[in-house]
Design goal:
about 170 residues; alpha/beta; eight-stranded mixed sheet; two-stranded antiparallel sheet; 10 strands; globular
């Protein structure tokens, strides 16, 4: 029988366990790709043997007033910020600077999870993610991945579906 790997708890896993959410854990080597979140997602998918479409990026963004928000997007797509802004009633939306994103989330960039963030923020999920049977999403540490039903994002985070995916 294979020995089960131990993963130390993160704010994300603490939140999920406290709410009785079923998930599996895995790890891969994290490699910075010059700040390119798309390459990081694709690298993670390849290491874990997953379709990059099911590897979900957690993006900390802000509206024109500087209010932070979370966007969950497929690893093989990018956010069309104009489409997102229209759907959420904002003048504009843009990614936060890495240090600002870390301040809001409490996580290091590259290890951001939408679960257990330092600051409560509205969460928006690309609608097509909810059509997937399972997703892989960051567990709160670089290279640490949680596998679960995408419905968890709606049930636990009150994530609101949007249609803002665009090809890379």
């Amino acid at each position: 029988m294979a020995k089960r790997r131990h993963f130390s708890q993160t704010p994300a896993t603490a939140m999920l366990r406290a709410r009785g959410v079923a998930f599996e854990e895995s790890a891969c080597d994290w490699q910075p790709h010059g700040g390119d979140m798309h390459s990081t997602s694709l690298h993670m998918a390849a290491q874990l043997g997953l379709d990059a479409h099911a590897v979900i990026k957690t993006l900390i963004m802000q509206d024109a007033k500087g209010a932070p928000l979370i966007v969950l997007m497929h690893g093989d797509q990018r956010v069309n910020t104009q489409a997102l802004a229209r759907q959420i009633g904002a003048k504009s939306v843009q990614p936060c600077a890495p240090e600002v994103a870390s301040k809001y989330s409490g996580y290091m960039v590259g290890g951001t999870s939408p679960f257990g963030t330092r600051r409560e923020m509205p969460v928006y999920i690309e609608q097509s993610i909810l059509e997937l049977p399972r997703i892989a999403i960051n567990g709160g540490r670089r290279g640490y991945v949680l596998h679960m039903s995408p419905q968890v994002c709606v049930d636990i985070l009150d994530a609101r579906p949007v249609q803002c995916a665009a090809p890379l």
